[in-house]
Design goal:
The complex is a heterodimer of chains A (243) and B (345). In chain A, the strands form three sheets. Chain A has a seven-stranded mixed β-barrel with strand order 5-12-9-10-7-6-13. Chain A has 243 residues and is α+β, with helices and mostly antiparallel strands. In chain A, helix 3 crosses helix 4. Chain B has two domains: 198 residues, no CATH class; 123 residues, Cyclophilin-like (Cyclophilin, Beta Barrel). Classes of the chains: A alpha+beta (243), B alpha+beta (345).
């Protein structure tokens, strides 16, 4: 029999949802378990579950209390949640083009200064990273990435900006992100991508899924304009690599 | 086909339905009606599915004119004066507008949201199964934004069905019921008690995204930053300043503040219809009680057609007047920046 892991906490989120919490902190192993539980529930659905929302450390399970009660659902969720996650074999990988610095990444120079290095070095460290989509949230398509190079961990801005552009590529704390729509943000803006992680009349509407792998590559600002036009017309300008 | 034209409308009015489900994992907000029971009642009056798309009217007045034929509509929700060509229309009843006739609705008297359902429902292009407006994400159909004068719905011609009223159960009075959690352990017993034992008022800066609560500051045990996790309709999060926010239908799908409690499904519409400035309390109930109430609430919505009655003018108006008296609020001020009416009991 396979070893089992410590059970997560089942936290009531009202009468129609339960938070399955694996950790209180950002923890890659916990996120692995979150995504594994999410996948397991997608593969063998439990009657009454209406929607699941993976986050860094927990899986929010929405359900219909007319179909299943809190205790009965917990009894079904726990045995699945304590199973060790299967090794990740076939994650999708996206190569995301980024125009770093200048008007597209207004914090690049400040970040370089704060870390006593050059903007080029920051770009190399950011683009050289191997990231995983840990969760998507806040606004449509906003992909939170784990895997940021430790040397780039820095606290968020003292005062968040009320509006940052669509496509912003940024870092905040231990996290990196791909932002789709214009939104407020307290993170450091390193660049912009023409890739739309969310686009209404495109198939698929949402490009990234929790669990996808992500790498970045630098493009010049002229290529950004070209790719941005193509993306606006509905083209997926990210490269997909099947690992 | 007929048309229903928005002749005039205030801010914070939009097309809403049961909401956009299934894409919260991609960060897509659910949206949908703030008061699901009233949406369902209005729809039931005109023979629609309970959560079909209707017009959610904010606290200000509005008027709608039938064009190119007759249009049958119904109203339910926050009480307000309504009339068609000088004839008063009671809340919770249907009416057929003849070609060129206008339905005029006054300011909400207590609460905020009144639902105008149209026979055959509002038609549009669904995204994730919903026409609900989510202005931030540019979603909603036929207009992906709050409604404006001149907007125009293509609708079914009126069927000629006799007019109906619906007898809704008296809404439960008393505290807004919550289930503690998911992060009630981020607060000590004294602060949980402070949350449950204090009087609260809804701030005038509230909106469809969240209701800001005015009352004592709630202190966290370990600070206000937690790692973001999922939110639900009715999550009560406590940010750094200690002033709780009840997350409503346009909430973000995840949030990084501890959530002390969650409003039960059966009471979210009641909270949505609580006027800014009106004092109210919360009460913690067990999960078993909350789920029992949720099941009863779902059953009541399913059985709404059993509550339909033939409209009978005079008796109905008396009843409507006494209903309005029960609600008993006089509008004293309206915050122009938001939809909130400041009311005095």
């Amino acid at each position: 029999m396979a070893a089992t892991l410590p059970p997560p906490r089942l936290l009531p989120s009202g009468d129609s949802a339960v938070t399955v919490e694996f950790s209180r902190t950002i923890d890659d192993d916990a996120n692995q378990r979150v995504l594994a539980l999410d996948k397991a529930l997608a593969a063998s659905p439990i009657d009454g579950i209406t929607e699941t929302v993976p986050t860094y450390r927990s899986l929010l399970v929405h359900y219909d209390p007319c179909k299943i009660g809190f205790d009965a659902l917990g009894d079904k969720l726990l045995p699945i949640a304590i199973q060790p996650p299967p090794p990740v074999t076939k994650a999708r990988r996206w190569r995301i083009p980024v125009a770093y610095g200048g008007e597209h990444g207004i914090d690049l120079e400040d970040v370089a200064k704060a870390l006593s290095t050059t903007p080029d070095d920051i770009v190399a460290r950011h683009a050289g990273g191997d990231y995983k989509v840990a969760m998507i949230g806040f606004t449509p398509g906003w992909s939170y990435l784990s895997g940021l190079d430790k040397s780039l961990h820095m606290s968020r801005r003292q005062s968040p900006r009320l509006l940052t552009p669509a496509g912003t590529i940024s870092i905040g704390g231990v996290q990196a992100g791909i932002q789709c729509l214009a939104a407020p943000s307290g993170w450091h803006l390193l660049g912009r991508t023409p890739v739309r992680t969310y686009q209404l009349h495109r198939n698929p509407t949402f490009l990234t899924e929790p669990g996808d792998r992500v790498t970045f590559f630098a493009i010049d600002h002229k290529s950004f304009e070209e790719l941005d036009r193509a993306a606006e017309a509905g083209e997926i300008v990210a490269e997909q690599v099947n690992a | 086909m007929s048309r229903l034209v928005v002749a005039s409308i205030g801010p914070a009015s939009s097309v809403q339905d049961g909401g956009r489900h299934g894409a919260q994992r991609y960060g897509l907000t659910v949206s949908g009606a703030m008061d699901r029971l009233s949406l369902a009642a209005a729809n039931t009056l005109v023979g629609n599915e309970p959560f079909a798309a209707a017009v959610e009217i904010g606290p200000f007045g509005a008027s709608f004119t039938a064009r190119d034929g007759a249009v049958r509509v119904a109203i339910s929700g926050a009480p307000r004066n309504a009339d068609v060509a000088g004839n008063p229309l009671a809340m919770d009843s249907s009416v057929t507008l003849k070609d060129g006739e206008t339905l005029t609705l006054g300011f909400a008297r207590g609460g905020a949201f009144t639902y105008l359902a149209i026979e055959g429902a509002i038609k549009g292009e669904t995204v994730f199964g919903s026409l609900a407006v989510n202005a931030r994400a540019g979603l909603g159909s036929p207009y992906p934004r709050p409604l404006q004068a001149g907007d125009d719905f293509t609708v079914d011609a009126a069927s000629g069905t006799p007019e109906l009223r619906i007898e809704l159960p008296k809404p439960p009075s008393g505290p807004i019921r919550v289930v503690l959690g998911p992060q009630d352990d981020e607060f000590d017993d004294a602060n949980k008690a402070l949350f449950l034992d204090s009087e609260w008022k809804i701030s005038a800066t509230s909106d469809r995204m969240g209701y800001r609560l005015e009352g004592p500051a709630i202190k966290h045990l370990h600070g206000h930053n937690i790692v973001s996790d999922g939110t639900v309709n009715g999550s009560i999060q406590v940010p750094g300043n200690g002033a709780p926010i009840a997350l409503m239908m346009d909430r973000g799908t995840s949030g990084g503040y501890p959530k002390i409690a969650t409003v039960i499904t059966a009471d979210i519409g009641r909270l949505a219809q609580t006027s800014a400035g009106t004092a109210f309390r919360f009460k913690a109930v067990s999960m078993a009680e909350a789920q029992d109430e949720a099941r009863k609430f779902a059953q009541m919505i399913k059985n709404l057609p059993d509550r339909l009655r033939a409209a009978d003018g005079v008796a109905l108006n008396i009843e409507a007047l006494s209903d309005a008296n029960v609600a008993g609020y006089a509008v004293s001020a309206v915050d122009a920046g938001t939809w909130q009416v400041t009311a005095e009991p």
